[in-house]
Amino acid sequence: MEHFITGLPKLELHLHIEGTLEPELMFALGQRNGVALPWPDVDSLRAAYEFDGLQSFLDLYYLGASVLIHEQDFFDLTWAYLERCVADHVVHVEIFFDPQTHTARGVPFATVLGGIERALQAGEAAFGISWRLIMSFLRHLSEEAAFATLAEATPYLARLHGVGLDSGEQGNPPSKFARVFARCRELGLPVVAHAGEEGPADYIWQAIRELGVQRIDHGVRCVEDPALLSYLADTRLPLTVCPLSNVRLRVFDQMAHHNVLRLLEQGLCVTVNSDDPAYFGGYLGANFQALADGLGASQEQLCRLSLNAVEASWLSLADKVRLTRDIRLHAALHGVSLH
Ligand code: ADE
Ligand code: ZN
């Protein structure tokens, strides 16, 4: 199975680049930039990765991001992630960055974008990994702050492929950002939003009806509303599910209770993603492996999850046809039949 998973062409559609900051790089950048961290060493930092929910993780994640200051830091961060993609046979990535996490500390928008984009371009040239970049608003901040960030991003909009919404979900419903998302759509940017991770099924409806999303990030609490489940199955509006994240953040108490395969069998366009892999115990390959080990996912189901990611991606039709063929070829070579 391990060999099958490694060779399966995979796409990542839900990844926060700040969530790929490994403890070793966090300490190296802290030293390079003279930023003190509240842990004496890498091991004690790792020992702090015991989360009782989304907020306890976010507190650590925003603190860790404080070592990212220069364009080269954002390049190094993104490059390290792309090297993991090569090892996992990830062929296409659509990644989030949180500009407000950095601009609030005085790091210019152009510095953040420039470093991430330069690494993605270099990764495409060196490894053939295609990419899209999604600017994400922090939902614990105000609508006004989101509009200010959109204004700051205006000179760079042609370099962004979409807009997202992340951070603490409870008490920050999608409706809070209906106006700023309407403006983003007017500007021609496709939009996505985290919803139904810790928040209720109604937040998923809000993201659909009030934000006009193309995909839902997480969305696993859709099971609480049968009408929503039917809607998602009928429309195939994709959910970017993150299995290891959900267990680490206690959305499910163990992998054996995760609902992603049930959703797959009910006809939803669910995909597998790693969210913040440096914090949650593994990159995309490890998330596929966790579904095999913890949920008994078959090779056929893993192939369908990867095919769903092709369908849910923002690739051109020609690229979708090519990747569909590559995944089907991988299945056929392993005697897996896809119907
Ligand atoms: N930011 C980074 N990871 C996140 C997650 N899993 N949910 C919400 N905001 C996030
Ligand atoms: Zn996320």
Overview of the structural elements:
Catalyzes the hydrolytic deamination of adenine to hypoxanthine. Plays an important role in the purine salvage pathway and in nitrogen catabolism. Its EC number is 3.5.4.2. It catalyses: adenine + H2O + H(+) = hypoxanthine + NH4(+). One of its GO terms (molecular function) is hydrolase activity. With 339 residues, the protein is α/β, with parallel strands linked by helices. The strands form two sheets. It has a four-stranded parallel beta sheet, with helices on both faces. It has a four-stranded parallel beta sheet with strand order 5-6-7-8. Helix 5 runs parallel beside helix 7 and helix 16 runs antiparallel to helix 17. The two termini are 20 Å apart. Zinc ion (ZN) binds next to strand 1.
Average pLDDT metric: 97
**Sheet with the most strands: spatial strand order:** 1-2-3-4
Count the beta strands. 8
Spatial separation of the terminal alpha carbons: 20 Å
Distinct bound molecules: adenine, zinc ion
Along the chain, the helix and strand elements come as HEHHHHEHHEHEHEHEHEHHEHHHH
What global shape is seen? globular
The biggest sheet, with number of strands, parallel, antiparallel or mixed sense and barrel status, is:
4 strands, parallel
Number of helices: 17
The amount of helix comes to 40-55%
Poorly predicted residue ranges? none
Helix-strand category: alpha/beta
Could you tell me the radius of gyration in angstroms?
Answer: 19 Å
